Amino acid sequence: MRKYGIDESTARFVQVGGHAARLQAVIGGRADATLINTVTALKGVQDGKVTVLTKLSKEFPGLGYVWNVVRTESLSSPSLRRPSRP
Q: How does DSSP classify residue 5?
């Protein structure tokens, strides 16, 4: 935030739920900034409610933000596993 001219010493950080809830926290004034996904950010920008300061990929080029998750029980399901290679 400092890099973009925002006084981080007065910024408020709150822990809230998913991306939409974080956007609403900024719009509602409960938080000064947040990290949200592209789709949610664009919705806020299109509505004229927020400004994107930067992209996470620009600030941290080697940091991956996408996670592939699966239910634990699905890992042991033969019907969901990739066929074995010869």
A: T
Compute the distance between CA of residue 62 and CA of residue 42 in angstroms, rounded to an integer. 23
d(CA 46, CA 17): 22
CB atoms within 10 A of CB 13: 10
Residue 86 has pLDDT above 70, yes or no: no
Q: How far apart are CA 37 and CA 21, in angstroms?
A: 12
Q: Look up the pTM and report it.
A: 0.64
DSSP string spanning 16-80? Answer: -SSHHHHHHHHHTTS-S-----HHHHHHHHHTTS------HHHHSTT---------GGGGG-GGG
